[in-house]
Amino acid sequence: MGKKESFYKTFASEQIMKPESLKRRILRDLKEQGFEINKGIIYCDEDIRKKKIRYLHSKAKHIKLEENKQFISENKDTLIDYFAEGEEINPAKFSPVIHQVESDSLYSNLFRFATLMWSVPVSQGYGRRTRFVVFDESINKLVGLFALCDPVFNLRVRDQWIEWDQNQRRERLYNVMDIFILGAVPPYNRLLCGKFIALSAISDIVRKSIWEKYKGSSSIIRI
């Protein structure tokens, strides 16, 4: 059974296939997570610290883990070996290497496994998407990861602030990619490696990788 068929079977079994029923469930779930809804507008209170954000996403995280239970069970013993123990790291010998992630590879599994540990579920992105992992070559351990995708095309606030017209937006966004996943994994996240991962995302290695992957192709923005 494919993902689409599984999705519809799940909702059909709960008798919420009608759009109005689905809408009610979404609104109920949002309220349970702490959001307020008034006249169709979704609000969150001003207490938006990390603890609050984690709480708001806790249900989605639980669902994500349930969906990946088999993957975790089958791969955790192998993948956990690529996560360093604190005593293994020698900052003086830190030797970072950026690897582009290909589908159905060790790096792909590590990327998926690492993001499942995060307190906020990651986005799947859209449009052009490229993932990277960063390793500490001195001990062959995962430092962190990041992913880039196409920027949001219709964003009035941004366009008004920059003063882009429609043609300028189409032309310039083609040469832009957003970082939609970024972070260091423990224990490297305790050593300011999150900032290092952010800098890695704008490195020449990444720019060249993106160029090689997409040169000669046209995105929807350009069509």
Counting copies of identical and different chains, the oligomeric state is single chain
> Looking at CATH, which topology of the domain at 84-222 would you report?
Aminopeptidase
Mean pLDDT, all residues: 84
Q: Assess the beta-strand content as a share of residues.
A: 15-25%
How does the SSE layout of this entry go?
Layout: H1 3-13, H2 19-32, E1 36-38, E2 41-43, H3 50-56, H4 58-67, H5 69-79, E3 96-100, H6 106-116, E4 129-136, E5 141-149, H7 156-162, H8 166-173, E6 178-184, H9 193-200, H10 204-214
Antiparallel strand pairs: 1-2, 3-4, 4-5, 5-6
Short account of what is shown:
This protein has 223 residues and is α+β, with helices and mostly antiparallel strands. It has a domain at 84-222: Aminopeptidase, CATH 3.40.630.
Q: Which terms would index this structure?
A:
alpha+beta; 223 residues; two-stranded antiparallel sheet; Aminopeptidase; single chain; four-stranded antiparallel sheet; globular; 6 strands
Structure description:
The chain is α+β, with helices and mostly antiparallel strands and 223 residues long. It has a domain of 139 residues: Aminopeptidase, CATH 3.40.630. It has ten helices and six strands. A hairpin with a 4-residue loop joins strand 4 and strand 5. Helix 5 packs across helix 6.
